[in-house]
Enamine deaminase RidA (YjgF/YER057c/UK114 family) (Breoghania corrubedonensis), 131 residues
Amino acid sequence: MTRHQITTGSDFERRFGYARAVVDGDWIFVSGTTGYDYDKNVLPATVETQTRKALANIARTLAETRASLADVVRVRYYVSDRAHVRRIAPILADTFGEIRPAATMVLCEMIEPEMMIEIEVTALRRSREPD
């Protein structure tokens, strides 16, 4: 199996020199993903909507690799405000409650002030189909 990249062509990927995800064998490493709505070309106004959209963006990336959120073994959340934690906890529990990946949450400043959450995941694809 070979290593390959998933790219979206986003401005951030070009400016900062990274791929949306790297697939190495059955391992998938998805870069930090914000709640940007690529269909509408906007960043939603609430942390809840940004969280849902970030998870949807991650799920779409994983699907490109023949994986899903159920394959996630590690997740890191970067949150811009402690008050957001209570608001996003139910969304995270709905998404990962049965999967229960190892997780870390970090409070930090974001690259852009309107960004409230960024989510990074590592997944182990369960299928053994060749790349």
Summary: The first strand starts at residue 3 and ends at 6. The chain has one domain: 3-124. Residues 3-124 form a domain with the 60s Ribosomal Protein L30; Chain: A; fold (CATH 3.30.1330.40).
